[in-house]
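Hi R.,

Here's the chain you asked about this morning:
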Amino acid sequence: MRLDDFTVPLWGEGHNLYPQHVFSTTSENKLLPELIQKQVKFLFGKSPRLYEIIQGEGEKQRRIRIPVEVPEIQDWLEYWEKNGFDPYWDYLQNEITDYYFVNTCITRYNFSRSRKLVGGVNKIQPVQALTYIGSDTARLATKLDSTVNRIANKDWNFVIVGDWMNPNRYNYEVYDRFNPAEPFRYSASVAFNSDKTFTKPIYAFNNWFKGLYEWIKASNLSPKYLNSYLKNALNAHIHVIIFGSWYNKQKEILQTICLENLTGDAPIQAEYKGIKLTDDRGKPMQFYETMVDQLISNELKNITSMMTGEGKNQGKNVGIYPLGRK
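And the predicted structure, written out as tokens:
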């Protein structure tokens, strides 16, 4: 899509709302939200720590992880919240959640003004903090024309953050994409990292969502249909009575049309309420009693289709009772 001077690749099939689509579908499921939350807790663990791996002693010589305290790193992490940024544990949990939903992690690097003067007497920290940016709000962008150029992944060198439900209505922010080769070039940049999805050159797509999508929808609809049935149905009987006057009227109409088709007094009418009145060569047919029976069958199908699906008519049984017919 075009957004002012930028070309934005769509994240999703036929839309630009893939993260929103994944969340809205999975959040209605009774199992998936809790499963993803457990995965987030397992990966986060008790807290982020640094470990040193050493070779164990004994016959098996198993490798052991030992926690390592690095005061400089811990001080830097605690510095985030003291200077008005989100705590580092919130940042990590949010990034992990996005990873499990859409295999993507998006981070804003908040650099200090003296970011290029690293170290020294004052021990300047080039990165003040890392800020989480939700995958639902961020999209890649470029100023190249996609109709002329074949754009490689490295050419998507901007990240636009905004409301993609209404991209042209609200203001949005444009950041330079973080480049590890020139990390301190910009005062703020955004890293857009994702797992490579086969045949998808730009964005990542969840490796289980598409295969389970129809199953998830069916699972989400099951309780709705069940509750609708308990509320509205309980196998109530609907009696549709076909009166003899209606039957005779439909028979009279069919006879009249067939007669007019055969005499040629009017243009040939090929069909009436789903009843075919001409043969395969388009020639008019004589009236037969079975035409009325077929018309009743068509009306029954229409009534039955109205009585199926979710809603106040769900589960009702339909009975057809002709009256006054010989």
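The chain is about 35% helix and 20% strand.

Let me know if you need anything else.
M.
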